[in-house]
Amino acid sequence: MLNINDDEINYGIYRSDDPLSNFKIRVKLERYTSNSLIPSLERLKIQDDLSRLLDNEGRGLEKMKGSNADVARLLDKARSEEYEQVDISWQQKLFNQVEFEIYEKDIGPDSTLVEQQYFNEIGKMKKTRRQPGKIFTYIEKDPYCAERNLDFFMTDSPDEQPSQLALAINTFQKPPVFPFQIRPSNEAFISKINLIHENPTLHEIQTNHFASLPYQTMYIMADLSDRIDATAGAAAFGSRTTNEHVLCQINAYSNGTIVLKPDFNTGKLAYMIESKNFNNDFYQYYIEHVSIPVTKDDLRREKRLLTEVAARQQAYLTKMVGKKFDTPPPNVLKLNVFGEIVSGKNFDYDNIYVYYCLDLTDNWYVESSMLLSGYTHTASSTASSKYDDIVYYSYPFEFEVWYKPSPHAADHELPRMPKIYFQIASLDSWNRHRTEGYTYIDIPSIPGFCDEHLSCWRPYGNSIFDELRRFYMGGSSELEDISYVAIPKSFQNKNNNKILSRFGFRTASTGMLNIRLNVVFQSQSLAKEYKKNPRSSVVKHHGFNAFMTNINDTINEYEQAKRRAFAVRERVFREHNFETYE
């Protein structure tokens, strides 16, 4: 549940998967300033006018002495005017006095189904001598909900009417709930594959262009108008004005969200409303949630049912995936890299794209179908601040590589991790190509997430003509081998005594590239380590180092077992030779 205070109006937002037919609200309405015992000038005037109209001779009627039954009826009527309590279900219709007088008349052949239904309900009320109270409701099929939506209005005036544009927009913002229908088509339809619909319906157009869910509305109202013989009042004044106030507005959305305006105030201060009649009375009311709670047996049965449904879904997913989960061979490490080129900033020119490639070191290999390089799209910069021009890419890439240590290199230091090289270049509308920078990143040897901002550099020409050519004609100095951004493989070999020297190589600092990497390690050694100690931080924080440690431990154990086997064989040979000699 979420409470939102907007202009001192308390909103309540709830989520429920239960049917709305179980939703029930209790409303308590009470007069705060009681004037029932003090006759007002308006009441005295109305009584005087009625006495003159009902007396044929123009004389006032004599005041008759009331019996005990009349006094009790008047006390009950006065008590009902002071306090009223109603339990309301979802989309339950309660009539006010005006609707009671309108729908009790005979309906004609042109009447709608709603009018016929209301006529039958009022007929049942008249048979049981039930009269409408102060609290009534407007439900979804009433004209009030369709034409008098409070979101349409720009002011709080009760005389304001919605415009035709507001009513037209409401048809889009509040789409009707239609059942799902499969349309016959000659083309095969696959969910999430056929994204383009050639001939959409009006409902599909409205649903796709407006991000709003279908919902139903219900208003709980209060009629605070004076009630002094409504029939005689209508005969005397020819019409009857209403004094309606919204006590609560309820919106139920198709995703199970229920919005109350205002929220329940059980145990809190009462909501106050002011009647706009002659007496100017104040009323206070409470809104309570009185839905029947679920019993313990039903709750236990529901939990058991949900558990069975979850188990069946899990069994279905297990059947779809299969039991043969892809695991790497023993003593082999599988490395998955899920990366994203997020953005770049502070480069010299606009319309920039990025070239990336993966450089594998010794004992690392990939499958033949794996792509080790790629290009991003060309993007223009966005001025996000006074000093930074940011180019957003959000370009994803991924690699799947394998590591199998050689028997001779297992006892030595850890091998180098693969590198990812990046080359940033620009291409303008005149097809002038310029190199904007180089950078690289080592894939972390720790599993998890990393967000890096890589500084870039580019080769700088030896003369001013190189920069003039870069500005006017395009083209600039580039690296023949992109691995020279870091240390090439030829210089990483220990048998090579050459020294990599960049002395005299001129560079210029350019912008920065934002890279995000998600690194995943998978091996049987890590799985065994996790089974031994699930809470071990070695597997979580050392990843590749833990894998290499397990490999070294395995090789050490193998060497010890081999030495023990040689010792046993030598002892057996000595004993056998000694027995033969004797």
Automatic annotation (TrEMBL):
The lineage of its organism: Eukaryota, Metazoa, Spiralia, Gnathifera, Rotifera. One of its GO terms (biological process) is cilium assembly. Pfam families: B9-C2 (PF07162). The keyword Cytoplasm applies. The keyword Amino-acid biosynthesis does not apply. Keywords: Cell projection, Cilium biogenesis/degradation, Cytoplasm, Cytoskeleton. It comes from the Eukaryota. GO terms for cellular component: MKS complex. It is found in: Cytoplasm, Cytoskeleton, Cilium basal body. InterPro entries: C2_B9-type_dom. This is Meckel syndrome type 1 protein.
